[in-house]
Amino acid sequence: MVHTRMSKAVVVGAGIGGLTAAVALHQQGWDVTVLERADSLAPVGAGIGLAPNSQRALDAIGLGDQVRNLSAWQGDGGLRDPRGRWLNRTDSEAAAERFGGPLVVVHRATLVDLLVSALPGGAVRTGTAAVLTDPGDERRPALVTTAVGGLEADLVVGADGIHSAVRGTLFPAHPGPRYSGFTTWRVVIPAPDTPFAPHETWGRGRLWGTQPLKDGRVYAYAAALAPEGERAADDERAELLRRFGDWHRPIPDVVAAAEPAQVLRHDVHHMAEPLPAYHHGRVALVGDAAHAMQPTLGQGGNQAIEDGIVLAHHAGRGPDVADGLGTYTRERLPRTMGVVRLATRIGRVALHDGAVGVAVRDALIRAVSRFGPGLVLRGFDGIADWEPPTRPCPAGAAPRHRGHTDTGHTVR
Hints:
This protein is of the alpha/beta class. The chain has a domain at 8-43 and 111-177 and 273-372: 3-Layer(bba) Sandwich (FAD/NAD(P)-binding domain), CATH 3.50.50.60. It is 33% helix and 23% strand. It has helices at residues 16-27, 52-59, 64-70, 92-99, 108-117, 165-170, 236-244, 251-257, 288-291, 300-315, 321-350, 355-369, 373-378, and strands at 8-12, 31-35, 47-50, 72-73, 78-80, 86-89, 104-107, 124-125, 130-134, 142-146, 149-153, 155-158, 178-190, 199-202, 206-212, 217-225, 264-270, 279-280, 283-285. The strands form four sheets. The protein has a seven-stranded mixed β-sheet with strand order 6-5-14-15-16-13-17, sandwiched between helices. Residues 391-412 have low confidence and may be disordered.
């Protein structure tokens, strides 16, 4: 009897992109090990909006319906100003009809648990820092080193986040992400007594978003222009009260309901300069390790999920992993960098801090909204209608989409 050796993949990092890649590779017949530096897989204080593009990507690994069942469906809401006046109203039915489904919101921990449940027991090793020692090539495997020894792999997936050490090993001359000029806060709390429609609110150099979760909690996020590294002298809940306490309800209620320790704050960095490739040797990068982006379009996690699906689709084709990774780069780099650039442009508009510019911005948003949702939604074509590859593509060929792959347009 002839025994065929199972291809071995090592995923460095157990975030959403890394776990999606791990599940997709496992379903393609790979032996997968996920190495995570943190002691546990317990994302805290954050929700994630999953647009139709990432839901279809999750459909490719059989998890789309489960995610939709566990998620809070994004209903009609829209964009407001700090006094509560609507700048535009969203139409969830129009968006769902145009893009094949609505935006849904889920806690990140829920999504992580679902992805882990689709992997074999023991596939994820927490508390295990990993170093890429050798990226390998067509003749030799890649090598990842941990405190307890080395792991050879036919494929290494660098999913170790915005400050990726794997990326630094592959492309040491690249400058990496740069500070975007603003900081963010995130918190998940029980729903306040004040009824509210899902919304995002734009002010001068500040923004706030409040979104419901299915379990009765609320996910809230905020952003503001700030010097890099700045932190509140007391605590971040107090900082939120200073910046947003006089905005429309339920914003003050949400801040008041949070415990100071629940409020997460992180400066925002993005990949202004694209990498030369998303792969080298037998190593591929996914998610923030490849294309860190501003959160202004809510597409960071969505694009990481797409990465994992497309990577597994091509890496699983034939014995030559390197050729498949080249196709992965050709498909993913222009698409994701288009999203990075668009998110940066939207960030400049959303966080504009000049009084005149903000007045003009708000007036234009109101004017465009009068033409109905179609005009606004048209700008989202090319991302929300993305479909995962379903059959092998010739090397260098574009994947099958209903929209463009290089515009970077998306939905929140």
